[in-house]
Design a protein that fits this description.
Blueprint lengths: L9 E10 L4 E5 L4 H8 L4 E3 L7 E5 L8 E6 L2 E6 L2 H14 L4 E9 L5 E7 L8 H13 L4 E5 L22 H13 L3 E3 L9 H4 L14 E3 L2 E3 L9 H14 L7 E5 L12 H7 L1 H17 L4 E5 L18 E5 L7 H10 L3 E5 L12 H17 L4 E6 L2 H4 L7 H12 L5 H13 L7 H8 L15 H12 L5 H9 L6 H20 L7 H23 L7 H12 L3 H12 L5 H23 L10
Parallel strand pairs: 2-3, 2-4, 4-6, 8-9, 8-17, 9-10, 13-14, 14-15, 15-16, 16-17
Antiparallel strand pairs: 1-7, 5-6, 5-7, 11-12
């Protein structure tokens, strides 16, 4: 029997076997360049006549775009498809089949459960990936039969010629790089969908003097426990739309996709500043939709179909009829309790086009949140299939400095890819096998469980957090505490509920120590195996340090013990190792801003030590 990822729709086996051919002799009834290229990437192959071929690609116009059939019989393999897409996916399936030395006769019929199977990668929260990194992501997506990929843009992480004076070197994806990424994605049957925010998440633009007066609330607002910078455009100011039009003019003509993700999520300040009077008069939903329609009119000029997040619109679903019928609504939620079934049922009832959008939950956690993410993804796919959604797009964000390393997200990417194509039983087992065998090539079969386990350290914490872990928030608030006039009191006020008791802290340290040992036991036969080990060790040691900081506030320990814990943290060199790891996959971009979060943590550990010693605190690390 063949082990194929993702599972095929049906496979019927015959009784006979024949030897795998030493070379593939290919015949194409119609030109299938990308399928041919795919086959040549893993097997010795050349084109021959129909009579001499042992692998034939024939045309069956009755099959849908991504549907294909494979017949393995009498020493030959015959593929039927109606398009390049179907032929390419058949070639991907053959990648797994041709690993067997003896080929068993079989008849395969396959097509995806969901039309759109996508991945969104954040390139805008300090971390901009290198071209090679993006291509490596595409390689993984291709093997899992994804067909939709977005690079999330807010701020200046994409090249804007008109505003080049505001952009830093090595801090954005150039237009040349974007076209190269698009070409590479398209060859792998992946649509690179342009993505650019234009309402909320505009903080990077609004901190520039030229645009500061476009902010809904120029002074920002107090949200989630702290004062936040201005991030929402004023929809009542025509100049807001002019800025967005400039951004569209730079990106949209570049793209060959028929879609565009306009985002428009989380305009937190809307109705709380300059548009307050307008919102009180017309209603927040109407003001939001009126501005959205103006932006959509611009998008349509480029022949694109807009995708839009549903966090605002879901609260004003009675107004969706005002928007163009071809718009695609994206319902996002990143926890096990996210109500995909309820929301997609409503969108189906309203006769809209819609997509679900779960998340990897890698952000604000360092290691991911395994249990929450897996249930979140499964719920999204189940609801998408149940209510005939256009598809689902997995998201991977970089909130607060994009502090997680890329491989942390791999388990969720694989799991999502498997069930987005075939939502069937056994996906978690298949995910582990794919990770160990195909992605990490780990001879000792440790990496899959290691990554899943690391994403469960949060199970030891005091409370379930819906968008992060208490360890992460401990670091975050220690960073802000280091800038406070009364750092110790600030930290205790923000983090008192996060501090685990002595027994749980010991269990966490022991658990993480075991994971460190497992990292060394992995035997990966891939080019970046050493880098991955360094990334995981850095991650584990940082989480351990955070819990040591928590223990330094445990009054059941002696003062000497608590001081010793801070000494252990300060003896480690987190900054240089993180910089080295970062630059291996990413541009220098805003590395300094991300490292500032670690510097702030280190500074606060020093403040804690000085406080425990009863000495006077003096700043050493500039944050």
């Amino acid at each position: 029997m063949y082990k194929i990822f993702p599972k095929v729709k049906t496979i019927k086996y015959g009784e006979s076997y024949f030897a795998r051919p030493a070379k593939l002799s290919l015949f194409f009834e119609e030109k299938r360049v990308n399928a041919f290229t795919k086959l040549k990437s893993f097997y010795d192959a050349s084109e021959e006549s129909k009579e001499e071929a042992n692998l034939l690609f024939l045309v069956n116009k009755d099959l849908k775009k991504e549907e294909y059939q494979i017949e393995i019989k009498d020493g030959k393999i015959i593929v039927y498809s109606s398009s390049d897409n179907g032929a390419f996916y058949a070639s991907t399936t053959l990648y797994f089949i041709l690993k067997e030395e003896k080929l068993q006769e079989a008849s395969i019929h396959d097509e995806p459960d969901l039309e759109i199977r996508g991945f969104t990668y954040d390139i805008s929260r300090n971390k901009v990936p290198k071209l090679e990194t993006v291509k490596n992501i595409i390689d993984i997506l291709s093997l899992l039969k994804f067909n939709h990929f977005e690079l999330y843009v807010e701020g200046l992480s994409f090249e804007y010629e008109k505003y080049k004076k505001y952009q830093k070197d090595d801090n954005f994806i150039t237009k040349k790089e974007y076209k190269e990424i698009e070409e590479y994605a398209n060859k792998n049957m992946i649509d690179l969908v342009p993505n650019e925010n234009g309402f909320g998440h505009m903080a990077d633009w609004l901190e520039i003097d030229e645009f500061k007066d476009l902010a809904e609330c120029p002074g920002g607002m107090f949200l989630w426990g702290r004062q936040r910078e201005a991030s929402t455009l004023d929809p009542s100011d025509d100049r807001s739309l002019e800025l967005v039009k400039d951004l569209y003019q730079e990106m949209l003509p570049l793209s060959n996709s028929k879609y565009f993700n306009m985002n428009f999520d989380e305009p937190f300040e809307l109705g709380k500043g300059k548009s307050k009077e307008l919102v009180e008069k017309e209603g927040l939903g109407k003001v939001y939709i009126d501005y959205t329609i103006k932006a959509v009119e611009e998008i349509k000029k480029y022949g694109k179909t807009p995708l839009i997040w549903m966090d605002v619109l879901m609260k004003h679903s009675e107004l969706l009829y005002l928007l163009p019928k071809d718009m695609i609504f994206m319902d996002w939620g990143y926890d096990s309790t996210s109500p995909f079934d309820r929301n997609l049922k409503l969108l189906k009832k309203l006769d809209t086009k819609f997509i679900s959008a779960p998340g990897t939950s890698s952000w604000c956690s360092f290691t991911g949140r395994t249990d929450a993410s897996l249930e979140n993804i499964k719920n999204a796919i189940d609801a998408s299939c149940k209510y005939q959604a256009l598809g689902s797009v997995l998201t991977d964000w970089g909130d607060f400095g994009h502090m997680q390393y890329l491989p942390i997200s791999y388990p969720q990417v694989v799991y999502f890819g498997l069930i987005a194509w075939r939502n069937s039983e056994g996906a978690l087992i298949d995910t582990k096998e794919f990770l160990n065998k195909e992605l990490f090539k780990d001879e000792n079969k440790i990496m899959a469980d290691l990554l899943f386990d690391l994403g469960r350290y949060c199970n030891y914490e005091n409370h379930h957090q819906s968008n992060g872990t208490e360890a992460f928030y401990t670091l975050m608030w220690s960073y802000f505490a280091s800038q406070s006039s009364d750092p110790i009191d600030y930290f205790k006020t923000k983090c008192s509920s996060y501090l685990v008791d002595r027994n749980h802290n010991i269990m966490l340290q022991n658990f993480l120590d075991e994971k460190l040992k497992e990292v060394d036991m992995c035997k990966m036969e891939i080019n970046d195996s050493s880098l991955i080990k360094d990334e995981l060790k850095d991650t584990i040691n940082l989480v351990k340090a955070i819990y040591k900081l928590q223990a330094a506030y445990d009054t059941s320990l002696s003062v000497e013990e608590r001081i010793s814990l801070t000494d252990e943290i300060l003896a480690q060199d987190f900054l240089h190792l993180r910089e080295k790891n970062w630059l291996a996959r990413n541009k220098s971009s805003d590395l300094c801003k991300s490292l500032d979060k670690i510097k702030g943590f280190i500074e606060f550990v020093r403040i804690t030590r000085e406080n425990l010693r009863g000495g006077k605190y003096e700043k050493e690390v500039k944050v």
